[in-house]
Every structure is written in C-alpha cells, then in structure tokens.
Amino acid sequence: MAKKKGAPSFECTECGWQTVKWVGRCPECQAWGTVEEKGQVTARTTAASSLAQPAKAIHDVDSSLASFRATSIGELDRVLGGGLVPGAVILMAGEPGVGKSTLLLQVASSVAKAHPEQPVLYLTGEESAAQVKKRAERIGAITDGLYLAAESDLGQALGQVEETGAEAGGPQLTIMDSVQTFSSAAVDGAAGGVTQIREVTASMIEAAKRKNMTTILVGHVTKDGNIAGPRMLEHLVDVVCQFEGDRHSRLRLLRAVKNRYGPTDDVGCFDLNEDGLTSLADPSGLFVSALTDRVPGTCITITLEGRRPLTAEVQALVAESQASQPRRAVSGLDSPRVSMLLAVLQRRARLATLMKSEAYVATVGGVKITEPAADLSIALAVASAALEKPLPNRFVAFGEVGLAGEVRPVPGLQRRLQEAQRLGFTHAIIPRNPDGNDSIPEGMRVREVGSLPEALNLVLDGGPPKEE
C-alpha cells in the first residue's frame, strides 16, 4: 500500500508560527508575507529498539554534576543563583553597545583563571580573533586557557568545540557571540532567520548536555526590546538574562528573566568604564546627588529591583508658564504616571498653581524607576518645588498614590526601611499598614499616612522633627 502523502507545512519566517495552509498574514506576529512553505509533514517517530542510557532511579542520579561554579564576578553570580552550572545553556540578550561582549569576555577570562584544568572557548561570529584580543588587552582579560575562534559556520563551530581541550574532556565554558550570526549548511535560510536560529541553538544545546559544558549564547534584541528569533528559543535554554543600560549612563543592570537553577527576582549592577565592567555591590550612591544644602523639589525614595533595595533621588522643578498648555518633561520615570500624579496634586491637594505651571521631573544618575512605590516621593518632590519649601534632611518616602489621593501599601516595606537606616536616613513617611510595623529599624522615626494631603501637611508644614 502506498504511503499517504503528508499535507504541506507552512511556517512564519519571523516568529516560527506553523500552519497546514498558507495565509497572507501571520496571526502570531501580525507580519505580512512571511508565511512560507517548509516541505512535507513527516510521519510520527517510533520508539527506539534499544536505549543508550536507560532511566535511573532519582536516588542514583549524581546531583554534584550540576553544582554551581563561581565566576569570581559577584554580581553575575548573584543573578545566576551562585555561578555557572555545568551543562547549562544561558541566553544573554541586550541592546547593541550595552556591553554584552565585554562582560562575557571578562567571564571567560575569570573562569579560565579560576579553573585552569579545562579551557574556555570563545566563538565570535561578528568580529575577528584579533579584534577580540584587542578588547581583551584593554580590559585585562588576557589569560592562559582562553581560546578564540572566529567562525560563522555552525559545523566549524561544533568542530572547534570537539577539538579544543579534547584531552581534558572539552571546554568547560563555550561562549557563542552571537547566535544570530551563525548558520548551518544543512538547513535553508539566511543567518539570523527563524530556521537557522532554531538549528544553531538546538545543536549547541545538544553539545552542551552531551559534554556537560556550560554554554552562553549572545542574542540580539528587536526595537521593542524583545529577544530576536522565535519565542521557542527562550523555552529551549535553561537561563535567559537581560542586560540593560542607557548608553548615556555608566550603570548596567543584569536581570534573569528565566532561571532553572536559581531565583529570577534579583538584579546585578555593573559600572561600565574604560577597563570593562566592574561589579557594584552598593550602587545607591550613583542615584543620589551630592548636594549638602536643602533644596526645594528633591526627595529620596527606596526602590526595589527584584529583591534588591536601591536608593534613588527624584528631582522636580516647577516654573511659571505663559503658554496655554504648560510643558511637562519627564526623565527616568513613567511619563503617564507622572501626569496622573500632577493631576492628583492639583485636585486632591489643592495645588492649583500646577495648572498653569511647567513641570520637569527627573531622576539622578540615569536610573529608571517604574514601580508605583515611587509615587509618594514624586508627589512630594513636585509639591516641594511648587511651594518652594524644602523637605527635611535625611528623609525618605515611598508609597503608591491612587486617583482618590490615598496612599496605598507597597511590598518590601521592611527591606526598604532597613536600607534607609543603613544609609543614615533618620525620617521616613510610609503608607499606613493595617497589620502594624513591629520592627522599625533603630534610630528611625517613621510616620504612617493614609492620604497624600496628610503626607504634605506632615512634611511641608512642620512635618517630622527637624535635625538636632
């Protein structure tokens, strides 16, 4: 009997969505003209007659093979949960020029120094080996045990993995920079396409698991900030990290979006300078100005980046305007939320001057604050600037402000107060907590408020006790 012919398979070249018939527009990514025929649907795979590695009882599995290896880069180890795991595949994504290659070159050098028994392989598809060495000399990453190979063919790259350190069992760490620049001659499509990215990633994952080798893949991002390529790419790997930073600022943040071996609610801070990236164990000083005198329009808040409290300063300037529509300018904050807070101040706090005044609100040091816990500090900074009354010294405030003018509780209250106390702040205004605050840090005077007008009366009309 003749075998029934399978139905044609179509796939979107942008996102990898598949269907059995052609459509003009991909319903997944909404792109036009990207659905192409990809051959025939094959038959179901049958069970193998023999197993290479039969299943083991969970008590017989050696968990030490998946133990963490520290990289000697503290902030990276913090985000990963303790270090690199042998056999893990990590996807590192970020905008161009943010410092991904610099960070990974430092990681490669550090791992090669810490564990000289096995080499480290750095595969570059974007630069030549000489260019990578030039950067390594600048940041002090020249070390024995670090091997460079400039390849763009997947077959050649896999050959480098097999040959490098073959006598020691292969490389302990392989870095592929970047996954979008490699291609395989065994599949159709140009480098960076959905089919090529899937093949490159699957081949590197297979090699990593077989050789128990940690693999880091560098990924590009789209203009929307998402990782380029099919969404399944993030499902295939073990860890997905986002490297963020403003090109006009030295601060760089590393977040774990997905982590099979550790937490995803932590953030690593780095300082980008001429010598590379330096771990910042206490970056709070970058986000606070050096002013010693009390100036109207400034307020300190404690924001949480994952589980990590960071001190940030909000500055506001309110000036008279002759225009029919006064200007509103925001930097480092969510612009629609700042506009909402200005309206709340105008209606609930009776600050009618804001209607015909220009308002400029910004953060210090280029930090971006998106969480609602900064609402109270923004409102206090704007009110202080509008009334030309400075806030008390060594004072912090955090809380979410609603449209009715109420101040709502925020998570991590105790962690924020402890960070404020550690940095020498003595006064704080926080949301009213129905459960009570039993463990206020020693040396701090904390006042609870339930509404924005109540907070303004406390701070700008006497407020907390002045400095002694």
Give an overview of the whole structure.
By secondary structure, the chain is α/β, with parallel strands linked by helices. The chain has three domains: 8-40; 66-281, 3-Layer(aba) Sandwich (Rossmann fold), CATH 3.40.50; 286-460, Ribosomal Protein S5, domain 2 (2-Layer Sandwich), CATH 3.30.230.10. 24% of the residues lie in helices and 25% in strands. It has ten helices and 21 strands. It has helices spanning 74-80, 100-114, 129-139, 154-163, 194-211, 232-236, 335-348, 375-387, 413-422, 452-460, and strands at residues 8-12, 18-19, 35-40, 89-94, 120-124, 146-150, 173-177, 214-219, 239-244, 251-259, 267-273, 276-279, 298-305, 308-320, 328-331, 357-363, 395-397, 400-401, 407-408, 427-431, 445-449. The protein has a nine-stranded mixed sheet with strand order 6-5-7-8-4-9-10-11-12, with helices on both faces. Strands 13-14-16-15 form a four-stranded mixed sheet. Strands 2-1-3 form a three-stranded antiparallel sheet, with no helix packed on it. Strand 11 and strand 12 form a beta hairpin. The longest helix is centred in the middle third of the chain and has 18 residues, at 194-211. The chain is elongated. 38% of the residues are buried. Residues 462-468 have low confidence and may be disordered.
